[in-house]
Specification:
about 140 residues, six-stranded mixed sheet, three-stranded antiparallel sheet, about 10% helix
Length: about 140
């Protein structure tokens, strides 16, 4: 997980040159579980407030590979093409929530949203871990 955090912080370095992180050791971790049905839809939250920058990743059960699914580096949301095997992926308007429609069985696994919030007291990083279970119809 540490290389992924380093990658995130390196990617963010240029757009955040004026952003000061007062305590980079203070990272918040929020965990949740969601169950959905094959062919249905599910919305995975990445906090209740829109972060300045975020990255959604997916880890398939039994592996340790975290694959980028979607992101917004401050220049608009983008969905990665490799996410198509999970279902029809989109990002909710004016939100960082990940929406998966036409859910596939392969969508089961751990979703991670790495969110960077720009607050008056400095930047804050939060990791949202959502374990998605996919049931058959």
């Amino acid at each position: 997980m540490t290389p992924y955090v380093c990658f995130l912080l390196c990617c963010l370095a240029l757009p955040l040159q004026g952003l000061e992180i007062f305590d980079p050791e203070e990272v918040e971790y929020i965990r949740s579980n969601v169950t959905a049905t094959v062919g249905g839809s599910v919305t995975l939250d990445c906090g209740s407030v829109m972060p300045a920058i975020y990255i959604w990743g997916f880890t398939k059960p039994g592996t340790d590979n975290n694959v980028a699914v979607a992101h917004n580096y401050g220049q608009g949301p983008k969905v990665q093409s490799q996410a198509s095997s999970l279902g029809s992926i989109s990002l909710q308007d004016n939100s960082s929530a990940l929406v998966i429609e036409q859910l596939q069985r392969d969508a089961a696994g751990m979703y991670t949203c790495q969110a960077l919030y720009d607050a008056d007291e400095g930047a804050r990083i939060t990791f949202y871990f959502t374990r998605l279970e996919v049931d058959e119809e």
